[in-house]
């Protein structure tokens, strides 16, 4: 079983691209993060609300591995935890390689279910020119690889703090690959 840890946590009550670091997140089952603009049972991302405001919120909590931020820094982009709008920065778990429906057990009580990949948008390019191209890559077989993190829904709530352990529980077979949500 894969395991890792939480590096940083962040939230923002306003719809801004970057979040604000905080010492702790209060995560609420079925809703998301208390005090975050993306909390809710229905979609909260403005572009998706414009299309269909009643669709379920499959993007309650956004996670990015610190290894992705490290890779972007090596490419010359000055990014750190919370800069790309993630709520939880992780370490030592290849989040994008996990199948849809995987459970991330964080700290004492929190359980997040992976719903899919974050779809990089023009806001990434507006934040730092060239960054959009850096988070969208092509594999050797021509497949598009998205490196903007994963999205989850909250199955069980509680607190998430930097240093909390993360364990992964895979869903039953067959495993479904992550797609944009």
TrEMBL record:
TM region(s), chain numbering: none
Q: Quote any Pfam family the record assigns.
A: MOSC
Where does the MOSC domain start and stop, copy by copy? 20-169
According to UniProt, the name of this protein is MOSC domain-containing protein
Its taxonomic placement starts with: Bacteria, Pseudomonadati, Pseudomonadota, Alphaproteobacteria, Hyphomicrobiales
